[in-house]
Design a protein that fits this description.
The protein is mainly alpha-helical. The chain is built from 4 helices and no strands.
Length: 152
């Protein structure tokens, strides 16, 4: 059961962090070749497809992470520093995503639907800023998760 939980945990991290990396590092710069309406419509559709996967990833991460915390490590007291760091940073990432989803994302959808391109651009800029914080946090958690058990 631990192997399944760990596999689901890693899968959730890959989906979320890998998706942010692909969107922020690869897709976003490539969009500079498009006009604003095309760029904003494409990002709306991209996020519309990606965000449900983020919710699934969050559920996988929480369920598998807390199952391992209690079943494998015996609770908070038995977990190493790396587990506590992953949990703390993970909750910060979740909070940032919930804010992104319920604030700038919903506003971006409305702005694109009403063809308010300046408003949509401002919302997309806010989303970019949040991802610019969440992506390094996610990469840090991946490094902690991969190396933490080997810390002195």
């Amino acid at each position: 059961m631990t192997a399944v939980a760990l596999a689901l945990h890693i899968l959730g991290a890959v989906i979320w962090v890998g998706g942010m990396f692909a969107i922020y590092v690869c897709l976003r710069p490539a969009l500079g070749t498009l006009d604003a309406p095309q760029r904003l419509r494409l990002m709306r559709v991209t996020f519309q497809k990606f965000f449900p996967w983020v919710w699934v990833a969050i559920l996988l991460l929480l369920a598998s992470g807390y199952w391992m915390l209690f079943a494998v490590f015996g609770g908070f007291a038995g977990a190493g520093l790396h587990i506590h760091l992953m949990q703390m940073i993970g909750w910060l990432m979740i909070a940032l995503f919930v804010w992104l989803f319920h604030g700038p994302w919903l506003a971006l959808k409305r702005a694109v639907e009403s063809e308010d391109w300046p408003g949509a651009g401002a919302r997309l800029s806010r989303i970019r800023q949040i991802i610019a914080v969440n992506l390094p946090l996610g990469l840090l958690v991946v490094v902690i998760g991969a190396s933490g058990r080997y810390w002195g």
